[in-house]
Amino acid sequence: MKGRRNSSSDYRSTPDRGGYSPGYASSEVSAKSTSSSTASGGRNSVSSAARSVAGIFTACFAPPEATIRSSKSFGDSEEFKAPSVASDVSRASSQKGRGSNRGINISINKEPGTVKFTMEEIQKATRNFSSSFKIGQGGFGTVYKAKLLDGTVVAVKRAKKSLYEKHLGVEFQSEIQTLSRVEHLNLVKFYGYLEEGDERIVVVEHVPNGNLREHLDCIHGKVLDLPTRLDIAIDVAHAITYLHMYIDHPIIHRDVKSSNILLTENFRAKIADFGFAKQAPDSDSGMTHVSTQVKGTAGYLDPEYLKTYQLTEKSDVYSFGVLLVELITGRRPIEPKFELRERITAKWAMKKFVDGEATTVLDPRLDQTAANTLALEKILELALQCLAPRRQNRPNMKRCAEILWTIRKDYRELSASDFRSFSSTSQRSSSIRD
């Protein structure tokens, strides 16, 4: 934990959008689930595959946002290249001075790095954890907003002292080690940490626009249109592809979900919260999986992982499939207030899809245009592949990103065509009236 980290250039996947975002913790609860499933068919047996997928969801039934804990122990296209590794980051030094009302009284290199803060510095930054600086609360603890002397706004995550147990210590170390190894435009940027006595604090960049789940719930007062949701899905796919394929020791996130996807003011997505992250199996050694206790969030959990305790990158792919359904429908993965047949959102959506009723699952706040309908069906088809009961039948994340790029391209072309057609019709109508 005392070592230095390397910084790297931003990995830019969608140049028409930009920005940055921090990780706020999720709630945690003990539970255990198992499920049985059958292999899904190929592209020509969509109906059979979807019914197989539908059958696995009941094992995951639990209140939304509950975190599972069990005690049982493309060619190389330039689009997906990892950023190069460059210079080391130096230790920050304390400085005295008044600063701004919300300024942190320390000087720090603007590049993220494994900087060890002191408790005095953190207390100055948050005015001794003043409630006026508080911006979030989760199962991990409380999040405060602060500002570096150079103007960089950061989020300070402070763990609950009442939760200092062995597993939380492991999760804290996991998050620090993971954040210090990665840098990508669509991953939360890391600035430093504090581990002193019973204090566990992480300092990351601040997200100005909340998380994806909040926006799907319209907490911020504006409905996300389908193009924005598609852009967010692509950002997330790129970030997970980077974790799985383009770092020295690939990482499985293990908790991909809408509340861990933070959005900038320009709606660029950034994945946060690496407390459950696990190093992927070493392919050179011939290992196909990591045997580990089940961790994740109910509704997003890979049923094969639940059943076998074998973790692979395809577990993230499964969670991503649930996320795709969530983006399309606007619903949470588990909706306890809905009638039983609609309670597990992915199960309900997949059944509607194979029954030829895909348009009925589209978020009712979105317009049912030709372009939206086309994107809806293609995204649901990709979700169906990601949700295959057996991991070998799921695509990898790189393939998911490629498919989403194609969907976005087709969507834009059809939208432009519809617009030209509408403009032409309007002009003809105007001529007739004249």
Automatic annotation (TrEMBL):
Annotated Pfam families: Pkinase
The keyword Nucleotide-binding is assigned to this record: yes
Region feature (Disordered): 1-45, 85-105
The entry's keywords: ATP-binding, Kinase, Nucleotide-binding, Serine/threonine-protein kinase, Transferase
Class of the enzyme per the UniProt entry, highest EC level: transferase
Superkingdom to which the source organism belongs: Eukaryota
Family: Belongs to the protein kinase superfamily.
Record protein name field: non-specific serine/threonine protein kinase
Species assigned in the record: Arachis duranensis
